[in-house]
Amino acid sequence: MEHSIEIVTSTDGQQVVSSRQVADNFGKTHKNVIASIREILAAENQAAKFFHETTYESRGKMYTEFLMDKSGFSLVAMGFTGKQALQWKLKYIDAFERMERSLMIGTQPEVLKRITHIEEQLSAAGILRPFVAPRYTMENLLTRYKQATGIDRVRTFYDDIGKWCGVKVPYANSIRIPVRDWIVVNLSLEHVQELVVGFETHTMTRSTDGYPVSLNGCFGNSVEWDRTLKEFDHKCAYCGESHEPLMAEHVVPQSVMAREHPELCDSVFNIVPVCKICNQSKGTSFMPTWFKKQPTYSDERYWRIQQHQSRYLLNTKEGVISA
Ligand SMILES: [Zn+2]
User: 275 CA to middle of ligand 1, Å?
Assistant: First the structure.
């Protein structure tokens, strides 16, 4: 016979199971299960809150029954041993957890759906620490953020996340749900990944205009590279052609940058997408001198490169690439 687990909501809103069902599933007599519960209650006052004594009717007679929540169940099931008992314990824990989850979904469907989606995507992408516990992870991000920026205002953290992702993070009093839940729902998945990677690897910091940037640059962060490609309309930053594949060009040559500031070599402000022809032609030349000599030179594209650099230029490193 197939036994099922039925979790019900008690009058005070708790998720509970009945002692009769537990006895049935674990192959015990109901009398024995009740005896175990009474033993637990006698031994520990604190346990009373996990159990609710009630009655049920069978053939015109009333019998005692207990309703127990997840903690109560765990205490009772602790005494059940054997392989089958273990399997049932796991089924119960799973049933309780699914119930809790579905109740949460009932209150904030968009947040829960979103978290599930992010979990799946992040785990599929092999990101360092998936959003297994989104709230904890947001805390974690905040801690990393404080370490990277020295700023410990939560609101500034939210504002920076907004800047990073190109959205305006609202204030708590203007939305129904908590701000961090709003963030989970409204940020694009790629931005969440970017933040997780950036903060987890201690590579997030702030640019001169307060814009959060990743020190990993394009090489450490595919999302940032994609963003840079978009910035240049998927065209070579020098000649403006869309020859594929575009490659990551170091505006200040790697060899030069490596001597002065090796830590900034691959930082995004020094990286622009270019075609293979331009990349080889420029080599280790000084960019402005080389670029201005090219037949494909344009003021507009030169200006774009400068815009890109100043956007990502770091506070502490000002002047490094005044090239
Ligand atoms: Zn080119």
Answer: 4
If you measure from the C-alpha of residue 292 to the centroid of ligand 1, how many angstroms do you get, rounded to a whole number? 13
* pTM over 0.90, yes/no: no
Structure-token pair, residue 236 = 């070579």
State in Å: Cα 175 to ligand 1 middle: 47
In which order are the strands placed within the sheet that holds 61-68? 8-9, 15-18, 61-68, 51-58
Tokens of 205: 């910091």
Domain boundaries, the chain: 8-105, 134-202, 224-320
Contact 323, 288 (CB under 8 A): yes
Phi, psi of 206 (to 5 degrees): -120, 145
pLDDT tens for residues 136-187?
356 666 776 776 677 778 888 888 778 777 788 888 777 777 787 787 777 7
In angstroms, the CA 114 to CA 122 distance is 12
